[in-house]
Structures are given as structure tokens and as C-alpha cells.
Amino acid sequence: MRPRRDIGDPSRRLPLWSPSVVNVVTDFGAMGDGETDDTKAFELAYRYAESRVKNGVGRTVIDIPAGTFLIKRPNALLNGAAPPRPANGLRFRGAGKRMTEIVFQPATGPGSYLCRNMDVWANVKFEQIQFRSATPGASFFYSYSTGQAQDYRFSECEWMGEWEYGLALDGTDTNSEMRWDACRVGGSYRRAFLYSGLSQRASNPQQQDQFLNYWFNDMKVEYDWGNFLEFPYGGSINCRGGSYIIIGKRPDQSPEYGRSSTFFRFPPGQHHDSVQRFHASDIRFEVRDPDVVIIDCSWGSGTVHFSDCDDTANAYKDFASSVSAHRYAVGARGPLIRYDSCQLAGRHEYRPATPTDKVPKVVRYDMCLLRSHNSADFVLSEDAPSTPFVTFVDCIDEPSETPAGEPTPTPGATPASVPGGAASPFA
Predict the structure, then answer these.
(1) Which pTM does this prediction carry?
(2) CB 220 within 8 Å of CB 185
(3) pLDDT by residue (tens digit) across 204-259?
(4) What span, in angstroms and rounded, lies between the C-alpha atoms of 390 and 397?
(5) Quick check: 142 and 110 in contact, CB under 8 A?
(6) Residues 325 and 358: beta-carbon distance below 8 Å
(7) CA–CA distance, 389 with 239 (Å, rounded to integer)
């Protein structure tokens, strides 16, 4: 039997040689039966990983085998708190998505996080784990940074249950370089799965905030209700491949969101100009309900680009032609908005922030299929008599229903405004 040493709990001991890979079951006594409270075992595992940091480098992989692990105290999985001891490198490794399940069941939901990183850890990885909230309104990860917290990786993970936040980013700098690969976002979100600028903890609210470089690759974003990404502080965001579906409705009218659930919500930022860039490519969206919004963007500048995306799966439904699942505020500095080789249902809504003759050509549709309307009535803009800032190039649209004797609008012509259209929460 190998010798073991005390790590703070007399009932659990670790090998004297301090291994780099530990197991929450065999080394810390977790049961993984879905009934036993395994909180203490995870707290000890994290304390052990923290104790092995040397010269600013973490040196521990925490293995979580197949099973259902119940955690009842906040911050038990990761508790990077003051006084900060900056560290780079921590890995949580499961046995497989849905094979390893962590159930978070704190006494109260709002304000309770399974993980927190208060400017301590960089280079943190989670792989092949399902996380489920068993207390409605609990949250997965709170990340506060003034320069240290960054480089998170999630591979083949899944989120289920009702959360307030998936990841809530806070602070003034970094919280950057985060990547999700082949993950599934399920459950529901009172606010958003990923939210930046949570409490606006800046000494100067007009300073430049750095929320940069987020990648979502080959995702299954198929959740009940809520927002997927919400970035009032801007950011550089890339979503490539996968299926994005909101399958339910908000149970209650939200003061901020109404009944809408939105994949990409970018409110106007109350801060100094910083990076505002969003790119979505090769994604299939399903708009199953009029309250589903793909994007609502009120950034004052930057770029938004959809490439080879398709939201026409439900274009045959009665409500499809009247939805406005893409909504923007535009002004003299943009944002620059472009759709390339996309298939689009319904109409797109634009809210000019300045008189339209002051808005340059900031919107372009290139070789797109307009499934529900022709280019002359594709744009909704209640506040503008015309929309000269929108350009269509080589698009295919629906045949016009113009009465006999009247000219048919030519694809590529600047579209006229169309009255009606859903109100936006940013209007």
C-alpha cells in the first residue's frame, strides 16, 4: 500500500510524492451515486491542486470518473479567491459527456456559483463533463479579472437545468481567449449562458474594457429559453458550425427581455470604444417561435458578419414571413453588417440612430436567398422613410406580388421601408 499524507482532512490522505493526476473518487472519497453529498471531496481536490502551484504554474489534473456527483456548496469545484496567488494551468477531466455528471444544488440559486476565479487562474480546461443546475437560478462560473483570468477551454461538455448565468465575466481587463469545442448548451438561462461586464467594476466606466476572443466551434446550442451570448461591453466573438435552436418560451414576462429569447444580444455599451466584432459561419438556426431572436445588436461601431448560415428551417410556418429575427441599430459609424451566401426567412429590422442620409452604406447582402420576401420589402425600418444604407448584391428573392401593370422591384435595388414590425428591447 503506497504511503499517503494528510491534506487537511484526517479521513483522506494523498501519496507522499504528490502526483500530478488525482481522482475525486479514489483519492478524495467522492461517491458519485447522485445521492451522497460529494462537496467535501471536490473542495479537497481543488485545495490539493492549489497547493501544487509552483513558480506560477499549476501542475494538477483532476479526474472525475463516470457517475453523478452532487455538490451543495458554492465554489466547491473551483475556488480561486483572495488573496490571489496567480497560477497558470488547471484541468478537470471527465469520462465522457453524460457519463460524468456534476449536479449543483446550493441552498439558494441567485448569487451561487459552482466555480469562481477571482483573478487567480489562467489556462483552465474542462472536458467531457455534464453540469446540471438542480437549484433554479444558480450559476456555473464567475470570472473576475484585471489581467490574470483568461484562457478557458471547454471540450465536449454539456449544461442542463435552469441557470441564471452560465459564465459571468466581470472586471476591467482580459477575461479573454475562451473556447468551446463540440459542447452542448441545453437547459435555460434567466440572463445568458455567457455574459460580459457583469457588475461594471471599473473605476472609470468610460475606460476601455477588454473582453476579447471567444470561439464556439461545432456546437449544439439547443436550450429551452433565455439568451446565449450577451455582450454589452463588446468583444471579438466567433461562432462556427453547429445547430442553434431555442425549443421553448420564457415562463414569465421579463422586465428586461420581455418574452424574447435571443442567441446573440449586443446592447449599447456604456464604455470607451473597444473591439466589437462578431462572426457566425456555417450555422443552421431554427426560429420555432415569433419570440425567438437570432441577433439584436446596438453596438455603435464594429463589424457583424454572417457567412453561409441558414435560418429557413421553419420558413413554411404561418408566422415565418412576419418575424424579424435579425435586429440592428445603425449609425454614422456602423456597425458594418454583412450577410454572405445566407438563406434568410422573415424580414430584418434596422433602427437608424441618426437621420438615414447621415448613415453610410453599412449593410450588405451578397448572394443570399431571401425566402419570404423580395428585396424591396425585406427591410423593416419604422423610423425611416427609406433605407439607402442597405445594399443587395446578386441575391435571389421571392417573386413580387406587385399588381399587374406595375413594375416589379429589381433584386439589388435599395429596399423601401416596410411599416409594422416587432418592437426591439433596445428601441
Answers:
(1) 0.89
(2) yes
(3) 555 546 678 999 999 999 999 999 999 888 889 999 999 999 999 999 999 999 99
(4) 15
(5) no
(6) no
(7) 26
